[in-house]
Batch of 4 targets.
Target 1
Amino acid sequence: MHYFSADYIFTGNGPLLKAGIVATNNDGLVLEVFKSKPKNLKREEIRHYRGIICPGFINTHCHLELSYLKGKIKANTQLHGFINDLMSVRENFTQIERESAMIQAENEMIKNGIVAVGDISNGSSTFSIKEKSSLYYHTFIEVFGSDPNLAKDAFSHSENLFNTYFNSSAVSITPHATYSVSAELSRLIHQHNVKRNSILSIHNQETQSENEFHKNGSGKLFEFLKIAEKTKGKFIPSGLNALPSFLQKYSNESKITLIHNTFTDYQDIQWAKNFSSSIYWTFCPNANMYIENTLPDFTLFLNEKCCIGTDSLASNNGLSVLEELKTISKHFPDIPLETLLKWATVNGAELLSIHQKFGTIEVGKKPGINLIENLDLENFKLTPHSKVVVLL
Ligand SMILES: [Zn+2]
């Protein structure tokens, strides 16, 4: 039996508990949450910490398979430059280098208080690590292809991966991004998902030229990906931003998370809310700074279901949900810390359908117990020195 207490406890389910106490067994199963010290509990039995105790973090967007690219891709080249660099270096690494980078990356996530991950996979290289891991993974098998004639082959490759995955309830087939999937391929993915109530993850509006791509059939991304050539001139611009142009092919999906949303505007958000009540907006601010040197306008999303992702080590210096929150807090200091913690815990658990176990500190759950230290508790804000310690 363990009793943890701190200046505050963010349970994710109700108000902050000042000097509350969480009781768990050795496995981290929450047995009791006390608002204040019960009379029969001795002070010396309680471990008291400075800071905030919160549930384990949910990282809703990562690419574990790209971990070997840490520090290998130039920053601030915009998305088309990033993709270009990624394609030119990715063959230069051995199997052993890739494997050890993935193991190291996973250990880093564990050390940083992450308990569950929504992870993108293009191949099967991460599957055996995931099968043995103490982390919970939902794997999004990613598929792409702008040439409609190649849709069937691309889809059947992803279907094979889907069928070999070790946990059939924690895997989906998902389109890569709004700009890289033909209408025919979308149709195949959608058909597969709707039947299974799968969770969908889509890279969305990561760069301005992604909107131009759909609106006018032009721009850096449209040129770089040679869309006119691949579609034999049949691409029809929608006159709309990337999000409504692409997402309308995915009606009646159970849950959808849109990743990045850096160039999503107010109208896009309203459109998405009308389209589905199960949209989750995943933000990876450090990757946005790395690739585009800009951030989404978070103030547009304060009433939405937001989640936090680290993206991959190809576009980030570390895999830490807290570091992502610190970046948001630095640029948008008015967003309350409780809101940020909700994005990092409760919402992600709900998206990945693991809220029975993770996301809140409640009796009967095993959410992981994190301590955030070095906060500005007077103003209730993260500081550049805030850090996470895993208590259990
Ligand atoms: Zn990504």
Target 2
Amino acid sequence: MKTVYAAMIILATSATAYAGETASAPGTTQYFVNLADGDTVEGPVKVIFGLSGMGVAPAGADIENTGHHHVLIDRPAIGTGADGAEEFDMNMPAEENLRHFGKGQTEVMLELAPGEHSLQLVLGDKDHIPHNPPIFSEVITITVK
Ligand SMILES: [Cu+2]
């Protein structure tokens, strides 16, 4: 059994070593289709995810130039600060404010409390890790009535 565990640890370690190494296609953009920074909307809020330059594929699918959408809700932005940069090497955790769309969904209906909310899209590879270089949208702030 010990040998098996050792082998598993080596496999897990080597998989981690390739984290963040899935290449993105040059010029790819990710954006909100139906929302703009500063919008005031009624809840629940439909959010449509846009991606130009790459394709959408489910998590686990090893297909070149594809990924799946993630939405960061009221979370520190990815890609704009020292803390965010660290997250590029990591498997993004599934949390209430970091939602994965691993079936390849391209929209969601969000239940957001009235008030201001920040939203950002981030593309993840088959292992939920941002591409290299990472693909993410601008951060938008919306107000829910
Ligand atoms: Cu994911």
Target 3
Amino acid sequence: MARVHVETWKTTYRGIVPDARLDQMTVDRDLEGGFGRWLTDPPPGHRAFVGEADEVGVVGFAVAHPEVGHDPVFTGELGAIYVLRGWQGQGIGQSLVGSVARHLRSTGHSAMLVWVLEGNPFRRFYEKLGGEILRRELRPTAGTKLPELAYGWRELKALMEL
Ligand SMILES: CC(C)(COP(=O)(O)OP(=O)(O)OC[C@H]1O[C@@H](n2cnc3c(N)ncnc32)[C@H](O)[C@@H]1OP(=O)(O)O)[C@@H](O)C(=O)NCCC(=O)NCCS
């Protein structure tokens, strides 16, 4: 998962997140830092789902958890979703969203949101899945503050079918 996290940041966020931050990312540093701490001791209610390929291992993952800002409607959150570049566009992301939606629904959430960097071209992925833009905020990311959009789904039923 750390390999997918690091590689996907580097292939997606160049020109969006400061170069210095991307250049210093390695799997070892990721495992020693916040991502590693999250993996070994996830906060209550956090659940990860992975997509795997034979002889490659994890090629994508997504994280579901309760929404952190206490939104009264969008109580579930898609906390992260990454698929390695070479495995994108094959339905893995969509299937991970399905797993997240089913998990959130089974743990009492009927709506969810996801935060995405405004400059991320992959935000079309969420639009294709029916997400609506809820709000825009400057949020702390990678040691700086960047504009992010929250996409929301008021109803998880369609996503649960993915
Ligand atoms: C975004 C991401 C998770 C999507 O996963 P994926 O496996 O590539 O997506 P899928 O193959 O399941 O695509 C599902 C649908 O979204 C569409 N889609 C995916 N990426 C898209 C893009 N950049 N622009 C427009 N549509 C896109 C696909 O065409 C597909 O629609 P279709 O079934 O009608 O063809 C993956 O591409 C990724 O990891 N991107 C880089 C990291 C990133 O930006 N993560 C999100 C951080 S908030």
Target 4
Amino acid sequence: MNGFWEWLRRLLSGGSPQRPARYVIALDPGHGGKYSGAAVEHPFQPGQKVMEKDITLAITLKLAQLLRDDGHHVVLTRDRDVHLSDDLNSDLRQRAEVANTAGAEIFVSIHCNSADNPEASGMETYHFPGSTRGRALADQIQRSLVQAFPERRNRGVKEGNFAVLRWTSMPACLVETEFLTHRDSLLFLLDSQNQQRMAGAIREGIYQYFRT
Ligand SMILES: [Zn+2]
């Protein structure tokens, strides 16, 4: 923008120039809208379901707020309960496109895990096979989560050929926070304070990555 008009805009909006955003960070709350992700019986509300899409959004919005408070430019693939396309393939591609178009420096997709085995639990983080920087990002986020929650099982860092990791053009990772299908992990995921702490741990992992 022209310098004068930028100055005038700031004057009229009553603010001093904002601290420049340090990083452009794309966050992807897994699923949304008609794609609920994993769904399980709600432990406290009979007949209700806990849906993955709601937990991923809650954690991601908390993470976005933390990063924005620190002056970063956060791009969200969704900030409410919507899908991006009626076609799943296209929905996933559009999530990657949001990050690519914004020129994001990293992409972090947030999910909850599920398994047929009700004993399965723990946290794990995926990166695209062979991506060195993706692996570095996944390593730092996983390490930070494990440090924040030493009582939870560390399932480690893994390679995953997920669509959002495949189509994003920047270092990317996908965090599987905990299992909806595990009784104790479900209670953990539903707790807003735990969601906030997970957001804080993921933020720390992101900052560690940028230091490497
Ligand atoms: Zn998912």
